[in-house]
Amino acid sequence: MTYLPYVVAAYCVFAVVLGWDYLAPRLQVRAQLRAAQLRAARRKDVPRAPDAPLSRE
Predict the structure, then answer these.
(1) What DSSP assignment string belongs to 1-57?
(2) What's the pLDDT tens digit per position in 8-30?
């Protein structure tokens, strides 16, 4: 009786989870940076009256 298939499968699952733990935060940071850049571009394009109160958006 050999446990080789179980051990190989366990290492494969470990590698996939480790890869996802490495990749997921980077994808989230990239998405948040892109959203912030788009938000800044939208705010820059909106003309504001000189005496308009500041908004807290």
Answers:
(1) ---HHHHHHHHHHHHHHHHHHHHHHHHHHHHHHHHHHHHHHHHHHS---TTPPPP--
(2) 999 999 999 999 999 999 999 99
